[in-house]
User: Fold this.
Amino acid sequence: MATAFAALVSLESNLRLIYNHPKYSFHFEEEQIRSLEGSVSFLIDFMKSYDNSLRPRKQAAEALEMRIAHAAQVAEDVIESHIVDHIRSGKTRSPRFLLDLQKAIQDMDYMRRKALNVRAQSGREQQQQQQTTYSSSAAAIQSTPPTFTMVGFDEIVLQLLGLLTGGPSSRPVIPIKGMGGIGKTTLARNVLQHPYIVEYFDVRLWATISQEYSLPKILSELLFHLKKSNNGTVDELQERLHKSLIGQRYLIVLDDMWNAKALDDMRFLFRNTKNDSRIVVTTRNSDVVEHLGVSPVAMSFLDEDNSWRLFCQKAFADQQGCPPELEETAKKIVAKCKGLPLSIVVVGGHLRKSSMAVDYWENVAESIMNPIGKDEHCLNVLSLSYSHLPVHLKPCFLFIGAFPEDEIISARDVYKLWIAEGFIQQGEYSSLEVAAGHCLWDLYMRNLILVDRWRPFYGIYAFKLHDLVREICLKIAKDVEFLYVFQTPKAINRKRRVVISREATHEAIASDSLVRFVMWERSRYNINNLYELKLLRTLCNVATTSSSGSIFKNLNLRYLNIDLGLTIRPILYYLLPSSMSLLWNLQILTINIADQSKVIAPYEIWEMLQLRYLEVDPICLIDPLPVDRLHQTNNFVMRNLISLFRVENFRFSDEVCKRIHNIRELRLSYCGEVSSYYCPGNLSRFNQLQVLWLQFDDNSKWREFVTSLTFPSKLMELRLRGSGVDWEELTMMVGPLPHFIKLELLADSVTGSIWNPKEEKFLRLKYLTISGCGDLVSWNADRCHFPVLEYLRLTYLPKLEELPPGIGEIPTLVRIVLRCCSASSTISAMRTLVEQEEQGNDSLRLDIYFEGDEETLESFNHKVQEEGLTSTNLSLHLNLLGSTHRPMEDVS
Assistant:
């Protein structure tokens, strides 16, 4: 039901906007629109009520799905075509439009009557509904990952640990072999993070290979994790990686290796394995193992007992085991999973969110067909999990199959695309973004996505899809005409949502195409002449050499992600055309440009009132003109805009504060002359602001400007660079904020050698980064100054004498990172860790990245050994000065 539900929700949003658009009046008959609204609302409720019914009732509703989808799509096409014509030429209502609209209304009304018939034929039979927990109270999103133990592989974990740490150096490469979904990646990740492995190896690296691998990308990934430069040719990257690993005992996991050629391309890594270094290769192909010439760690299916344990861990995580009345049926379901971990965790995750009614579980058990083959069986189970998803999650789930195989997917990017495509209903949530976050969390709790990174108060920051999960996404998406993946744009003109996985030219897409969503899968391609696709609303990963080009003639765009950096000669300024304001429903605009370039937006950008995200780095905004207070004040408020960055020399004028008063995220940079013209005192008027980044070109002159800022009370995160305030000023500016939980102090943000924090400040602060504040010598902090701190990161503090001893006593603190700090502060942090362990605190983790010349490193090692500063919770990395570094200011 994904296609129909997505079409209905998008149409519903458009109908609501027609009567409430702040800029245009589109001259629709109110009676016609109200009739459409009634049909759409009824059909949405119909699909929700039948989505999780028992099979006969559900099949009756599904028989209507494609017809409902087609009717809703046609209605939306008619409406949006008329809107575009109206904006372009000023036409009001042509006879053809009136006929088309009336037919669309009749078709929707007909589908409503058909749905009523289905409901009537169902009678009063009892309906067993899946009770999806979709509320902020019952399905709260966590900001840290839940922990689950790996079930059923204790012996194989011990075997792999032995091979990694006790086996002969003549066997440097260890393959893990097994079918898709058997748990190869999970095993490798668990072992990579095992405390003994963390202590044993100096360096631990991970790279995903995948079917269509890119050697430069893999090398860049490995060098990135080593904090080395990842620019250059393949030969240069290989040599840089090789030199970086010399003398270090390393463990590298090459995940998802598909063929021997990829293995051969990575063999240069094997040259450094004489010092007990190891390389782990996970693969499902016997050819790769045979090519290595060593016996693999072979993964087999779980036995009955371990299958049951794993299922209970996933299905009954919120309860005290399996209810007795469900046990017989639950074991029947587990048996049909045939011991395949991926099948078990996906079904378990689905049932965890489901009704506890026995009939419902019996229905699930009957739906799992007997396997035809190994992969076919897993796909069958995944397909079953999809069919039982709540209808609002189905388009969200299918859509993430649009991203490339093994891609690390940004949750923020997904939210924006889901919103632009009209999949998200705000409902009870405070915003569309919060509703989207709950959808992604729900998919995670159903074990349909793999979380790659978590971030403070964001929860899921990035995630991946198992390749079998992506395969079922694309298969179902094609079957229900939701999404298509093409090698080239040939034959896409009658499709509505397409992903192009190869380079293509614009000529293949006809101007009368029905295509509404176009995304290039792996790169950005030049589309200078792609224009006047009347219904196109999402254009992602494209490039052009002209900022004033025809791309802004696509007036129906809701989402535009464009690269202006593909020029032979660098361009200092890109001027956006004033005509861009004609894009009547543009919600997300992301522009990427080359370094040293700037985008200058026209005044008319203040008239683009549907914008939610304006993200350009950097962008210059012209001040908006004052509006007629009697007639037009409300017509020019950008009430939807929540994210704006990176604006150069942003002015907090009265007019700007009125226009964007709902802004939640601001990233600003200042350069040139300091002036009261910027009105810093007005910052407090952004009373919804939660995230603020400020960057200044010279800390010596912007101090007074920064201290005159009045921060709004809802601010949660602040990042400063080059602000030049002293430590006391910083404390008094942001310490009292009641919701403040994250502070990042980057290069030259704070000056002064002593920081004496004050009690009753920073009471909510959880995440603190101090980087490049080179004057800091003494930080006199105690547990009472940061009572709920969880994460502390200190980098490039060469004068800091010691880590405050009381910091380790903060009960909530779980991780400290020191990078390129003084030897004395680094040693003191290690002492703090050891002291905390002696007092029974095993939850604190310390990561050290220390660098120096040979004499410094030798002295440091001697001190560590002399004091016996070792711990399983310590990750120590030493680096000899003189190697080429990627900038190590990683504030993630």
About this structure: The CA atoms of residues 292 and 847 lie 34 Å apart.
